[in-house]
Amino acid sequence: MLLDDRILIDAPPTILHQLQTNNISSSQITDLLITHWHGDHVFGLPFLLLDRRFISDREGVSRLRIHLHSNGIERMKKICELAFPNTLEQVIEERVEWIVNDSGHANGWDYERFPVKHTPETDPHGYLLRDSNGFVLLHTGDSGPCETIEQRIPNSHAILLEMGVPDGDEFPYHHRPEDIIRTASKESQKTFLITHSYASGKEEKVGFSMPSLPSNAIQIEDGQLYNLDISGIQIE
Ligand SMILES: [Zn+2]
Ligand SMILES: [Zn+2]
């Protein structure tokens, strides 16, 4: 998710393509908030840094603040070294600022980072974000249903939830359609943005088709633009 064209929550391997498709330069990103250390969320970091170093910010004007737990700094450096050996040390040293506290600011938003229920080895977290107008976005990262998310839903205007697996089995570390339906029906005044979907969303013969969800649970897609504010969510 990209907020205000400058705050990125996680960097998937496809990040550069997604930014280019939406006419956004990698140098516009001021803050990167990490939810957890699975490849689909962080393997885009080396590409992002490489692009800033050699293409979008050759002069080294912009800084990137990376918000993460302190034990993630070494992981991130390792990912960058594996991807581009002996290439990114300098850009990391000179142009990255590490922000390790569990609450802080990211260019117009205040946030609180909180633990969620996902593969424990990935240090999984979500973010409760509030902008200067009082709009509250709950970004839950990857997680199964859990108390830390439930507690924060009543104070949020929009809730971003993953739906990583289909119904039919027990998956404690992900939401299934039945979990989304239960959660969204209980809080029918809230808007749920459903992402990370196992379903293809297209009329193809491979994969799963989109499940039907309550009307306050919007199945979002890559590249879509949303206006989020206290009065509601509009798709552009
Ligand atoms: Zn994950
Ligand atoms: Zn994931």
Describe, in plain words, how this protein is organized in 3D.
The protein is of the alpha/beta class and 236 residues long. The chain has 2 domains: 1-102, Ribonuclease Z/Hydroxyacylglutathione hydrolase-like (Metallo-beta-lactamase, Chain A, 4-Layer Sandwich); 108-236, Metallo-beta-lactamase, Chain A (4-Layer Sandwich). Helix content is 25%, strand content 25%. The chain has 7 helices and 14 strands. The protein has helices at residues 15-21, 39-42, 45-56, 72-83, 89-95, 147-152, 177-186, and strands at 2-3, 7-9, 31-33, 64-67, 96-99, 103-106, 109-115, 125-131, 136-139, 158-162, 191-195, 217-219, 226-229, 232-235. The strands form 3 sheets. The protein has a 7-stranded mixed β-sheet with strand order 6-7-8-9-10-11-12. β6 (103-106) and β7 form a beta hairpin. The longest helix is centred in the N-terminal third of the chain and has 12 residues, at 45-56. The radius of gyration is 18 Å and the shape is globular. The two termini are 15 Å apart.
Keywords for this entry:
236 residues; binds zinc ion; Metallo-beta-lactamase, Chain A; alpha/beta; five-stranded mixed beta sheet; 2 domains; seven-stranded mixed beta sheet; 7 helices; 14 strands
Main β sheet profile: 7 strands, mixed
CATH architecture of the largest domain: 4-Layer Sandwich
With strands numbered from the N-terminus, the spatial order across the biggest sheet is 6-7-8-9-10-11-12
Radius of gyration from the CA trace? 18 Å
- Principal-axes geometry comes out as globular
Structural class: alpha/beta
* Assembly context of the chains: single chain
CATH superfamily of the largest domain: Ribonuclease Z/Hydroxyacylglutathione hydrolase-like
